[in-house]
Amino acid sequence: MAEGPVKVTPAELGLGPSEEVDARLEFDLGNLCAYDPSPVDAEAYARDASGACASTASRIMQALVGRLFALPSEPADVGRIAELPAPTTALPREKPIPRPRPPTKWELFAKKKGITKHKRSKLVLDETSDTFKRRHGYSKANDPAAVPIIDAKDGEDVGDDPFSKQKRDKKARVAKQEKAQLANLKAAAKSGGKGALPPTLRLAAALPEHGRGRPVRHKDYKQELKAATRQAAISTASLGRHDRVVAGENVADRKLPGKRKKLPPVANKDGGERTSQSKLVDHILRKNADDIVDVGRAIGKFESAAREDRHRMKMKGANKKGRISKGAGAPTGKTKAGGVAKKGGREGSAKGRGKKA
Predict the structure, then answer these.
(1) Is the pLDDT of residue 338 over 60?
(2) Neighbours of 25 (CB within 10 A)
(3) What local confidence, expressed as pLDDT, does residue 9 receive?
């Protein structure tokens, strides 16, 4: 069930029956404003200016809120929403209304011929890859610069490079477009004034580099001339050491700001270059010696491999010298008497008998 407009009584707003505030106020509900054109009570403001201002503002605000609650409203999630009427007070603009930009040559030509501008899609079918790509920009569709082979046309010179010709044509098109854009800006500034130009161009024209805007101080000109003179003086082969000093020029200004790197001679017979290179290599090797060879780890691996070899040969029945007898084999385990058979026992017993004999 739709609810009707909410009515607020003067008693609910804190207004007494004898206070006729609405009668002398002018309301602009579109701008949420209320004005009191009646003369000011000089005696009340003389006694207590702050209290009189607060009392007057409170009464005007209560009357404005009463008018707002009397407007037709509809329920919403946040409460009730009322549609404000159109504003009746014309508020001034902070800045003047911008002048319309004069039409360009193309816009005049299109208007004369009845050409209408249609919005084109950003994606276009690329015939080479059979996929949709962007119309302009990086990796665009049907890019002539991305074609690896270009067919020769009739009437072209034999030694002419088609890829270089494409670059030259593109540069010419860009230059022509910039020239046309500059002509349009000049025409806009001539007919509509500086206000018709884009803000970026107005800012650039106000810089000192363009000779407009803030005037350049004489001190700045002097510093620029001094820097240019110094740059010209140290641009010779000797860095200005053997050049003539101009009247009024300081020789100390020709010194380089940093320490110049001393390069070794090209032809060196005393072996200085070889010595320096050898020192550099030795320094690098000493610094990264741990990363190249770990001596302790290498010795440990070598000893571990030797122990494994000795254990393997011992399991095969080899003697201390590493020789394996013909009848020797793997150990047979425990004997009948319960003892453990010694590795290489037969060979030892045979030697023992031979010694006794």
Answers:
(1) no
(2) 17
(3) 57
What percent of the chain is modeled with pLDDT above 90?
Answer: 7
Neighbours of 104 (CB within 10 A): 16
Between vectors from CA 14 to CA 8 and to CA 15, what angle results, nearest 5°? 85
| pTM of structure | 0.33
Structure tokens at 347: 């060979």
Tokens encoding 260:
């110049």
- For residues 342 and 302, what is the distance between their CA atoms, to the nearest angstrom? 29
**Distance, CA of 272 to CA of 66 (rounded, Å):** 100
- Contact between 104 and 184 under an 8 Å Cβ cutoff? The reply is yes
CA distance 80 to 198: 45
- CA distance linking residue 222 with residue 228, whole number of Å: 10
Distance, in Å, from the CA atom of 354 to the CA atom of 348, rounded to the nearest integer, reads 10
Which among 196, 236, 200 has a CA at the least distance from the CA of 101? 196
Dig out the tokens for 152 from the structure. 């020769």
Alpha helices (runs of H) in the chain, residue ranges in sequence order: 42-47, 49-69, 105-113, 162-192, 199-205, 218-233, 272-287, 289-292, 295-315, 345-356
pLDDT digits (tens, 9 = 90+) for 24-35: 788 899 999 998
CA–CA gap between residue 310 and residue 313 (Å, rounded):
5
